[in-house]
């Protein structure tokens, strides 16, 4: 019998493994206890964490500013609809049935601020753009900004686009299947492969069917870019349906994590994640901690975790934006999808999920190579926007695996989440996105005159 860990880990990595296991047992026990507590007691913990924070914080000011009121309103919004309503937009909700039976939520902004579409669920005749979120996220991350001019979907809606936002299976808006119960292991048995084979292409086909458009523009963030790289590479016909692919903070084959112990441990045996978290959803207790911790404290916890794992300072994101956005940051995802990422990091290749978990412990190595996504075959124009301080982006490695028609824009001083919520994205990111959309939008967007009507082109 092969034991994957023996001979693969150093003494301090074994210590980290044992320590991590006991921490997770403790965290699970605490989460279970909290789940059983009545709401008044949870509120008591929240109130006292707020009191302690203000007692020891030097930044506390009794009177709230207008900006703080906005941040609180965004933070307290319960869902995508309330976020849109706050900014004065009417949204639509759609449901896509994938070929393997998952029900995915789609959100749409078909009109400008203050306008309402007379016939929901029909074509607008506008150019169509589809936005997709990253790992452990949902569509709310696009609209939880504290300024409308920094909110990409709202800007695109004002520029005359028919804006759609997708959701991965298992997250807040897609936790349903016609075949499996969400509490079953089978429901959560999916990886990046399933996003590429089903979620992305099925969502695109649904959107094009509703809008009666021949193609759309795709904007992805982080894992949302990896899903598109994979989908376009294995579905040649999908390239005809996407007129441009704009990748924000693109993810393909990250070098690893900034925390040496965690990085070494997971690369030595990615399937250790199953030992730690089981085979369903990962970090499902995150929302519990969010409920009992005062927002600035929860923000500090997230910042500390991101600094430890990825060496991100997040200095380009304001404190108020963090308080507003971090409340919408986390959504459920499968442990298997995270294991897939550690397999990719370990092998240094953008590959499909390796089902032969025992092969990781084979002393003589494997007699096969997991299939890789053929990303050089992508025909759709690709536009990359990445931050030069993003530890998850190895741009040189990525360009070697992409077709020659790929274009690149480097954002100085930007980290990963900065591209989504940074204080200057209205100057550094959104103009690049809008210009790329205008450049590549083809005849499916309507006649040139129609396309230019009411459309502001950002200067570079």
Write the layout of secondary structure elements.
Blueprint: H1 11-36, H2 39-56, H3 66-76, H4 80-86, E1 92-97, E2 103-109, E3 128-132, H5 152-158, E4 162-165, H6 192-211, E5 216-221, H7 223-234, E6 242-248, H8 260-268, H9 272-277, H10 286-292, H11 295-310, H12 319-326, H13 335-347, E7 382-387, H14 395-400, E8 407-411, H15 418-421, H16 425-428, H17 430-440, H18 448-452
Parallel strand pairs: 3-4, 3-5, 5-6, 6-7, 7-8
Antiparallel strand pairs: 1-2, 2-4
Helix pairs in contact: 1-8, 3-12, 6-7, 11-12
A few lines on this structure:
With 460 residues, the protein is α/β, with parallel strands linked by helices. It is 41% helix and 10% strand.
Question: Which key features would you list for this structure?
Answer:
about 450 residues; eight-stranded mixed β-sheet; globular; alpha/beta; disordered C terminus; 18 helices
Estimate the global geometry from the Cα principal axes: globular
Structural class: alpha/beta
Q: In percent terms, what proportion of residues is strand? A: 5-15%
Q: What is the number of beta strands?
A: 8
The ordered string of helix (H) and strand (E) elements is HHHHEEEHEHEHEHHHHHHEHEHHHH
What is the helix content? 40-55%
Instruction: Detail the poorly predicted runs.
Output: 447-460
Determine the number of helices (DSSP H or I, runs of at least 4 residues).
Answer: 18
């Amino acid at each position: 019998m092969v034991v994957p860990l023996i001979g693969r880990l150093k003494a301090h990595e074994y210590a980290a493994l044992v320590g991590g296991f006991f921490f997770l047992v403790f965290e699970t026990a605490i989460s279970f206890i909290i789940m059983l507590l009545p709401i008044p007691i949870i509120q008591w913990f929240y109130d006292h964490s707020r009191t302690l924070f203000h007692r020891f914080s030097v930044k506390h000011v009794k009177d709230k500013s207008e900006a703080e009121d906005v941040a609180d309103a965004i933070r307290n919004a319960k869902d995508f609809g309330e976020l849109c309503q706050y900014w004065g937009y009417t949204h639509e909700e759609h449901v896509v049935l994938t070929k393997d039976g998952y029900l995915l939520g789609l959100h749409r902004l078909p009109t400008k601020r203050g306008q309402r579409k007379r016939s929901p669920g029909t074509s607008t005749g506008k150019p169509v753009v589809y936005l997709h979120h990253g790992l452990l996220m949902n569509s709310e991350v696009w609209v939880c900004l504290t300024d409308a001019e920094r909110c990409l979907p709202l800007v695109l809606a004002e520029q005359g686009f028919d804006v759609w936002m997708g959701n991965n299976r298992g997250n807040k808006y897609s936790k349903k299947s016609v075949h499996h119960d969400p509490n079953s292991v089978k429901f959560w048995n999916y990886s990046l492969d399933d996003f590429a084979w089903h979620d992305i292409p099925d969502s695109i086909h649904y959107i094009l069917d509703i809008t009666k458009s021949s193609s759309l523009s795709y904007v992805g963030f982080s894992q949302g870019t990896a899903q598109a790289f994979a989908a376009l590479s294995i579905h040649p016909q999908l390239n005809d349906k996407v007129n441009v692919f704009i990748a924000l903070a693109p993810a393909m084959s990250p070098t690893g994590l900034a925390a040496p112990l965690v990085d070494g441990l997971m690369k030595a045996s990615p399937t250790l994640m199953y030992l730690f978290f089981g085979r369903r959803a990962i970090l499902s207790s995150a929302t519990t901690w969010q409920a009992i911790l005062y927002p600035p404290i929860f923000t500090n916890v997230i910042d500390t975790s991101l600094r430890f794992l990825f060496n991100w300072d997040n200095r380009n994101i304001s404190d108020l934006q963090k308080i507003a956005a971090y409340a919408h940051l986390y959504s459920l995802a499968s442990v298997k999808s995270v294991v897939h990422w550690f397999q990719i990091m370990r092998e240094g290749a953008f590959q499909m999920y390796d089902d032969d978990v025992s092969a990781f412990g084979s002393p003589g190595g494997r007699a096969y190579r997991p299939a890789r996504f053929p990303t050089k075959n992508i025909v759709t124009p690709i536009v990359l926007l990445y931050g030069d301080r993003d530890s998850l982006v190895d741009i040189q490695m990525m360009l070697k695996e992409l077709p020659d028609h790929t274009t690149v824009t480097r954002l100085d001083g930007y980290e990963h989440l900065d591209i989504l919520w940074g204080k200057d994205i209205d100057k550094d990111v959104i103009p690049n996105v809008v210009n790329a959309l205008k450049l590549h939008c083809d005849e499916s967007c309507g006649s040139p005159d129609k396309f230019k009507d009411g459309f502001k082109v950002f200067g570079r």
